[in-house]
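Table S2 (continued). Query chain:
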Amino acid sequence: MSADAEKYWYNLTTGQVEKGFESPAVDRAGPFDTAEEAARAPEIMKERSRAWSDDEAREDSWGSGGTAAH
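Corresponding output:
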């Protein structure tokens, strides 16, 4: 059994926290070390998405004098 089978997952369909591989992979976000982290999955995903978007914006403006092209 893999270590991920002992971790917590957020079920994107039901909004429930699960331990192990209860649901199909397409319905799960994770893994998370604690049930509390898994319960915050939507918030964590939004934070990561925002950070990735900010990184992409910085990369897009690289070499253009620090301003993004519009």
